[in-house]
Amino acid sequence: MKAIWNNIVIAESDDTVVIENNHYFPEESIKKEFFKPSETHTTCPWKGVASYYSIEVDGNQNTDAAWYYPETSELAKPIKGKVAFWKGVTIEA
User: In which order are the strands placed within the sheet that holds 60-68?
Assistant: First the structure.
C-alpha cells in the first residue's frame, strides 16, 4: 500500500492494518522527511489518545493529515505506533 500526497509517496508498506476503513502504516514505512510533529491530540473512546503529524511536500503543508497512537487500549494494540492518513492523502494498492 502507498500513501500519496501532492503526487509524492509519503509512506509505503505491504504490512498495513485496516481499522475503520483506515490503513495504518508501520512507523518505519513513512518517509520521515515529509512529517512534522503537531501539538494536536484527540481522544478515541476505544483506541486512546491520538497524536498528529503535519505533512510537508514541496513547500505545501497539510496540517494534521496523519495520526498515530503512541499508546493504545488493549483493543487497539495492533495499531500502536502505526500511522494513518486523511485530509486528501490517498491510499493506493
Answer: 35-44, 48-57, 60-68, 83-85
12 and 18 in contact (C-beta within 8 Å)?
A: no
Please give the angle made by the CA atoms of 9, 68 and 49, to the nearest 5 degrees: 160
Beta-bridge partners for 72: none
pLDDT tens sequence across 64-82: 999 999 999 999 999 998 9
For residue 33, what is its C-alpha cell? 522527511
Q: How confident is the model at residue 45 (pLDDT cuts 50, 70, 90)?
A: very high
pTM (2 decimals)? Answer: 0.95
Angstrom distance (rounded) from CA 69 to CA 86: 15
Instruction: Lay out the sheet containing 90-92: strands in order across.
Output: 8-12, 2-5, 90-92
Using DSSP, state whether 13 is helix, strand or coil: coil
